[in-house]
């Protein structure tokens, strides 16, 4: 169907731009790791998304219960649970979007990279199945360490001959969600109006929020910006410590994951001007993968947007994060090619 986007210029003029939207038949979305701490609330939120017609819930254990429970909700999508490797193909067949929160979470004292040994193998086997059963799906990678799991996925897809850099996303939306929340609190502005790009990667100092570009503008001191940056970078650790051994962020992550998947679905359906930050194959810096604003469209990534003007503090942060991010990318590529 043809819709029109109404935009109002700063002079107040209203213009109308036609675009075609294809949402009638609905989309098939899979959650891999659906019985987990993130998987369950994410399954709930995807069940509430009217763009989804088929919701496929996969895990190695526990999915029959989650699917029976979520499936009773009277919204559009048909819910099916799949358990165990022998049912992974059926879970993936025909998927438009595959969201991956499968794998172990951190405990206090661990870095995301400490999860590599377990999660790299999980991601590798799930991506091997994606290449076989739904090679055209958009993949939303949540499993940590994202800085390495996305390069692993890319290598698996390359080997299978299915790699399309437009269809692979590291989910960094939670960094944006946190940056918005923390900025709104500090700047005392309405949180619903706040925008803050977060670039780089998804671990420690590789998370680089660009508060110089935050809107609405606020007069924050250098100390405030430094504190906000640090809190955003350590947001995951803040939750890990507060949960004291019971895992990491699950509820805020489910919210962020649902937001990003919805943006992917809108892009696929032809909604114009869908822009979210994501960790993707990139030419924005010399690093092969980098998070920045990305325009989403009918083929996934429509355009990787540049960084825009950076403050001196942000330029410094960008140079400091590059060695760590480069090493995490290299580690992922090496793992995928040697095992
Ligand atoms: P969890 O342990 O509660 O759940 C993980 C689920 O994955 C479990 O149900 C488990 O059975 C399942 N699983 C394990 N191996 C699997 C496989 N081979 N196939 C399918 N499912 C499998 O953990 P969680 O709190 O949901 O976190 C999951 C992952 O998400 C962790 O790696 C965590 O670090 C990461 N995470 C990422 C972000 C982000 O911003 N990208 C935010 C929070 C958490
Ligand atoms: C987060 O940012 O909350 C996740 O990456 C989980 C973690 O280990 O911090």
TrEMBL record:
Enzyme class: oxidoreductase
GO biological process: malate metabolic process; tricarboxylic acid cycle
GO CC terms in record: mitochondrial matrix
Catalysed reaction equations from the record: (S)-malate + NAD(+) = oxaloacetate + NADH + H(+)
GO MF assignments: L-malate dehydrogenase (NAD+) activity
Subunit structure: Homodimer.
Database matches in PANTHER family: MALATE AND LACTATE DEHYDROGENASE, MALATE DEHYDROGENASE 1, MITOCHONDRIAL-RELATED
Name by which UniProt lists this protein: Malate dehydrogenase
Protein species of origin: Rhamnella rubrinervis
């Amino acid at each position: 169907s043809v819709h029109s986007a109404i935009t109002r210029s700063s002079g107040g003029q209203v213009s109308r731009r036609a675009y075609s939207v294809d949402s009638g038949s609905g989309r098939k979305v899979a959650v891999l790791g659906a019985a987990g701490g993130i998987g369950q609330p994410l399954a709930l939120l995807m069940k509430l998304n009217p763009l989804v017609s088929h919701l496929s819930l996969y895990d190695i254990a526990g999915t029959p219960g989650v699917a029976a429970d979520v499936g009773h909700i009277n919204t559009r999508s048909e819910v099916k649970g799949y358990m165990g490797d022998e049912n992974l193909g059926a879970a993936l067949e025909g998927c438009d979007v595959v969201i991956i929160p499968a794998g172990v979470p951190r405990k206090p004292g661990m870095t995301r990279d400490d999860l590599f040994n377990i999660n790299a193998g999980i991601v590798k086997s799930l991506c091997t199945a994606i290449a076989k059963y739904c090679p055209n799906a958009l993949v939303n990678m949540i499993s940590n360490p994202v800085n390495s799991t996305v390069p692993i996925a890319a290598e698996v897809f390359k080997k299978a001959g299915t790699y399309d850099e437009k269809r692979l996303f590291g989910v960094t939306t939670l960094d944006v969600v946190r940056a918005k929340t923390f900025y709104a609190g500090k700047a005392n502005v309405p949180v619903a109006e706040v925008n803050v790009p977060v670039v780089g990667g998804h671990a420690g100092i590789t998370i680089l929020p660009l508060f110089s570009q935050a809107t609405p503008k606020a007069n924050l001191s250098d100390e405030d910006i430094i504190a906000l940056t640090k809190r955003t970078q350590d947001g995951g650790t803040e939750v890990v410590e507060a949960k004291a051994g019971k895992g990491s962020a699950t509820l805020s992550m489910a919210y962020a994951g649902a937001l990003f998947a919805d943006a992917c679905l809108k892009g696929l359906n032809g909604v114009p001007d869908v822009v979210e930050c994501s960790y993707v194959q990139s030419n924005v810096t010399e690093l092969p993968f980098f998070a920045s604003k990305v325009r989403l469209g009918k083929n996934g990534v429509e355009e990787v947007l540049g960084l825009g003007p950076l403050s001196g503090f942000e330029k410094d942060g960008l140079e400091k994060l590059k060695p760590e991010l480069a090493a995490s990318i290299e580690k992922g590529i090496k793992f995928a090619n040697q095992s």
